[in-house]
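Re-run with default settings, no changes from the original entry. Doing this only to confirm the output is reproducible before filing.
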Amino acid sequence: MPTTLSPVVIRFGRLGDTILLQPLLRKLHLRYGQPCRLLALGDWPAVLYSNQSEVEGCIPLRSQYGPMWLRPQRWRAVLSLRQLREAPFYVCEPELRARAKVRPMLALAGVPPEHCAFIEELPLRSDEHWVDWLLRFGDTTPTAFRGRSVPLLRPPAASPDLQVSVAERTDRDAWLRVQGMSGRPLVLLQPANKRTMRWNGVRQADDDDKSWPAERWAALARAIGYRLPQAQILLCGAPAEAAYLDTLLAVLDTASLRIDAAVLPLGRMKALLEIAHSMVSVDTGPAHLAAAVGCPLVVLMGARSPQLWKPRSASGSAVSLLGGLPAVRRVDEIDVTQVITAWRELPARPGPLPATLTTARRERRPLPAQSAG
């Protein structure tokens, strides 16, 4: 097939949304015989897909907001799309405000309407998981390409499956040595989510349905340390959440626990989750990342539907979900004993852990960023 059939996928979502795209990207790669180009927000797409054969490159975009003339990166994205305008385009934006940003960009790029498919035209079914909706969307074909894609003999896996690169493993192993954590079982705790921080500090707990009290994180850490005394416990978060992690750390018994806070670059977190014993997380992007690399996981969910958003693991690693609609509307309704029990009952991750300092898989070619001008 000609290289112009390399599909273009557009999604203006956060980390978890970008992870959940992976089964769709894999499906489109199989259907069209060429890896996808991905237009997505943030720095994480290039990191997530750095070692994935289904993605050829990422078109970076930091923000979808503001006038076009004040956002040079949006103009560069438009020029990149213009170079790809003969390809099939899959727009995975269900929200009206995001769609209103995508359509003008496509028009400026000269992408013909018959080259585009929009997920808004495929209604979400009752109790359908987001990944299943995306995979149904992957069965659609823009008008101009009907009859030009490869029929699939069997459907691809309906769970994200992300691979860790050699560079990420090397960075992880070096970091663990420097921190004095090599050889210890790792348990990662992810207390923050996208709503935790505001411009002026930590959001009030009553304004964040995913906030779990600090004393419960402390009780959970003590229980983990008692059950797994050799473990290294890591409170994880993004750079903007560093002060919040330090606040939590001050509540914890650091004298008797091997516990620390770590602001982790995404690639390092991905590599740590690849070898970690387990993770306990509120419902946020790193929880989806843990499942996608096979880390046993407990997820605390607030006012969201588990049927729609539960993390999925392609490797079969355990995902234990607590809370969520309709029974629970706030994470702080989940008792600490429920979380401790769920963590203790996690089965071991399937298969052997990848060897440290060696390559468990052959690294694929690096992922270039697409830009113009």
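The two ends are 28 Å apart (CA to CA). The chain is about 35% helix and 15% strand.
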